[in-house]
Design a protein that fits this description.
The complex is a heterotrimer of chains A (about 260), B (about 240) and C (about 220). The N terminus and C terminus of chain B are likely disordered. Chain B contains 8 helices and 10 strands. Chain B has about 240 residues and is of the alpha/beta class. With about 220 residues, chain C is mainly alpha-helical. Chain C is about 85% helix and about 0% strand. In chain C, helix 3 packs parallel to helix 6, helix 6 crosses helix 7 and helix 8 packs antiparallel against helix 9. Classes of the chains: A mainly alpha (about 260), B alpha/beta (about 240), C mainly alpha (about 220).
């Protein structure tokens, strides 16, 4: 069996270079090529990272749910789906956190406050806590099978909540529209031309970054599992060694009628 | 099922384990157990503490997971269908499976109905294990000995084909042991298979038709390559 | 089908009987929820007329905190004396066990809400309007809380840190229920029941969805050791 001491695969250098390059291009596009927004000024440039991180967060949680479903379904049950679900959820939480921070940084100059009870901010915050709980659950279950199964259920149950959270928060805020929103202070102002290019490029750049990190994280999870398996193999062997005295007809307080001898 | 290595036609196998591994958390409680149990046998598991006896019984009950190897119990593959096994076994473990705030009667009635039985079978079990006088005592007020009897009562409410007893004699007084031996004897008479783990060999040996020594999560002599001894007369050796 | 319903009742009846004996909900959870209502008055100056306006929200926060305790208790009971193994050895359908446990939690929550609502009307000087709407939305919210709570109770069951983990897992999930119940009660108390309908629908959808998820997912959750 081939020794793997690195999370590197044939794919990672390719994805890594592409991700890094596209992020650099995004910086140029977002900071210099795209014009400043007529209403929001330079603050609007945050959109080129904010919208992609938000989108990728949803993609990541979608991948987690799909992988969890594949794990729960008997015919496709395999540890790799559990690893994929866990890895993608971690990235999803990172992207959700980034989205929140970027949203707040954007809100300060545009809305005048870091936090406002905007529907999207609130539902993103709920999403953040939903999956923070999922990750917390992953950390406390020791047994790998039990962890995989329980967490697959948890991921699907959390995912099912997303639309309900989204619509209820949306209704809540539209029924009680606050005056804190400045004119034009929405996250989706009219965009066109260079702005659109920068935004779409941002999507591509972050998708590549997500893919790169996901591959590495999955590899790491696989290696951890391999290590655990080895530790387990050693433990099983040690456990077997305990059996040796029984195989030999020594005078023990339990003179059992040993017939089998050693391990057949 | 029903066939094994020696090719000698025998009673069908109730349990058939090969290299069975059970990992609890990260600890390999069972490290590759080979075990055959034929129908009607009373198998005694012996071995020091930590040998894996309790886990083996829990594996046979369909309660502990099968991590590696092969295991069939009552014709069901434990990897595929643990639930199907569970409904046909009765387990006497270290715990009563009962609720602290319910009385003996309420607990036994719940277990009887949950096992698909009737309320009457619970009342019969109360009588059988001699708990009539404390039938309306909540579990939390029971003495250790009464709890052991209650655990026996739970076993008695279950219509089982395989009886799994973990240190059945522990914590029972002389009268309780008579009840237990009686229960095992009755099971044997009905063709119910028994696997038990015990340290009290002088009590357990007379009941057993075969002994399997365990150590280090491994059963040294679990494979049947000869016909099991005919069941001993259980009534003579059993009673105090 | 009849046996399934019997199993549901068996489990729910068992849980309620345990509650009847141990009185944990009546003697601990209910006073706790009442205390929460009292503390809100400390936090929000009761003289400024703020309390009647925010009463629905405070009520449902109190119920939510109480529900956490009730769910926690419902699954702590199964950890006693290996009772969970007893359930796994039974012939009861896991879906029936789930529905039974959820029904037990729901029944306790309904009783708790009734007492707490009385306290709300007395303490916070709220006038009851549209009682049928209050009851309907409370019923739906309770169903949702019990359904989701029982799924997460099973998810956290048997873990070392379940007391701290359960709130983190459950609270974000039931956020829509909290929101819906509060708005529906506001609408009812303000005398504009039409405002409540979207929320009644949200809560109904939530309750149905989580009941279905629980019925499907409880088997795997009960299955593993």
């Amino acid at each position: 069996m081939k020794e793997t001491a690195t999370t590197r695969t044939w794919l990672t250098p390719v994805l890594g270079v592409l991700a890094l390059g596209s992020l650099a291009v995004l910086a140029v596009l977002g900071l210099w090529v795209a014009p400043p927004d007529a209403v929001q000024g330079d603050a609007q440039r945050l959109m080129y990272v904010h919208v992609p991180t938000a989108t990728l967060a949803y993609v990541a949680f979608g991948v987690t749910s799909l992988a969890s479903a594949l794990y729960l379904w008997r015919r496709t049950r395999a540890p790799r789906w559990d690893r994929l679900a866990a890895s993608s959820a971690e990235l999803g939480v990172v992207f959700t956190g980034l989205t929140l921070v970027l949203g707040m940084l954007w809100g300060r100059p545009v809305w005048g406050v870091y936090w406002t009870w905007d529907a999207r901010l609130v539902s993103t915050a709920v999403l953040f806590f939903l999956y923070l709980g999922y990750l917390a659950l992953r950390r406390v279950i020791v047994d790998p099978d039990a962890r995989a199964r329980r967490c697959a259920v948890a991921a699907l149950v959390a995912f099912a909540d997303i639309p309900i959270v989204h619509y209820s928060v949306e209704w809540w805020r539209s029924l009680h529209q606050d005056s804190t929103l400045l004119p034009g202070g929405r996250l989706d102002p009219e965009i066109s031309g260079d702005m659109l290019v920068a935004l779409l490029w941002g999507m591509v750049a972050f998708a590549l970054t997500y893919a790169y990190l996901l591959v590495r994280r999955c590899r790491l999870a696989a290696m951890e599992e391999g290590l655990e398996q080895r530790v387990l193999d050693v433990a099983v062997a040690e456990r077997r060694a305990e059996a040796a005295p029984v195989a030999a007809p020594v005078a023990t307080p339990v003179p059992a009628p040993v017939t089998g001898g050693g391990r057949a | 099922m029903g066939r094994f290595q020696g090719g000698i036609p025998l009673q069908p196998l109730v349990a058939h384990l090969r290299s069975a591994v059970t990992v609890l958390g990260r600890y390999p409680a069972l490290a590759g157990v080979d075990l055959d149990v034929a129908e009607g046998e009373v198998v005694l598991l012996t071995g020091p503490n930590g040998a894996g006896k309790t886990t083996l019984l829990r594996l046979l009950a369909g309660l502990a997971p099968l991590t590696g190897g092969h295991a069939e119990v009552l014709g069901h593959d434990l990897r595929q269908d643990r639930r199907a096994v569970r409904r046909h076994v009765a387990v006497l473990g270290h715990e009563t499976f009962c609720y602290e705030d319910l009385t003996v009667r309420e607990n036994l009635r719940f277990h009887a109905r949950a096992a698909g039985g009737s309320v009457e079978s619970a009342d019969a079990a109360i009588e059988r294990v001699g708990l009539i006088r404390s039938a309306d005592t909540p579990h939390r007020l029971l003495s250790a000995g009464q709890r052991r009897r209650l655990a026996l009562g739970v076993v008695a409410t279950r219509p089982a084909r395989l009886l799994l007893l973990d240190e059945p004699h522990a914590g029972l007084d002389a009268a309780g042991r008579v009840v237990l031996d009686d229960l095992i004897g009755a099971a044997g008479a009905e063709g119910v298979t028994v696997v038990m783990a015990s340290h009290e060999l002088e009590r357990a040996r007379p009941l057993a038709t075969r002994e399997v020594a365990m150590a280090g999560g491994y059963a040294a002599s679990g494979v049947l390559d000869h016909e099991p001894r005919p069941a001993r007369s259980r009534t003579t050796g059993a009673l105090v | 089908m009849r046996r399934f319903a019997g199993s549901v009742l068996l489990v729910a009846g068992k849980d309620l009987r345990i509650e009847g004996r141990s009185r944990v909900t009546t003697n601990q959870v209910l006073p706790f929820a009442g205390l929460v209502l009292l503390l809100f008055a400390f936090a929000l100056d009761p003289d400024r007329g703020l309390l009647p306006r925010v009463a629905p929200g405070l009520f449902w926060v109190a119920v939510l905190l109480a529900a956490l305790l009730a769910v926690s208790r419902a699954f702590a009971v199964e950890a006693e004396n290996g009772a969970r193994d007893g359930l796994r050895l039974s012939v009861l359908d896991p879906a029936a066990v789930y529905l039974g446990k959820a029904a037990g939690v729901a029944a306790q929550l309904v009783a708790l809400e009734a007492v707490l609502a009385a306290g709300l009307f007395v303490l916070y000087d709220v006038d009851a309007h549209q009682v049928w709407l209050l009851a309907l939305s409370a019923g739906l919210a309770t169903a949702g809380l019990a359904a989701a709570g029982s799924v997460y109770g099973a998810l956290a069951a048997g873990l070392r840190v379940r007391e701290t983990l359960l709130p983190l897992l459950l609270l974000p999930v039931v956020a829509p229920v909290m929101l819906g119940a509060t708005r529906a009660w506001e609408a009812a108390l303000n005398g504009v029941p039409s405002d409540a309908w979207p929320w009644v629908q949200v809560m109904a959808a939530f309750a149905v969805m989580y009941t279905a998820l629980g019925v499907i997912a409880f088997g795997p959750l009960l299955e593993e050791s």
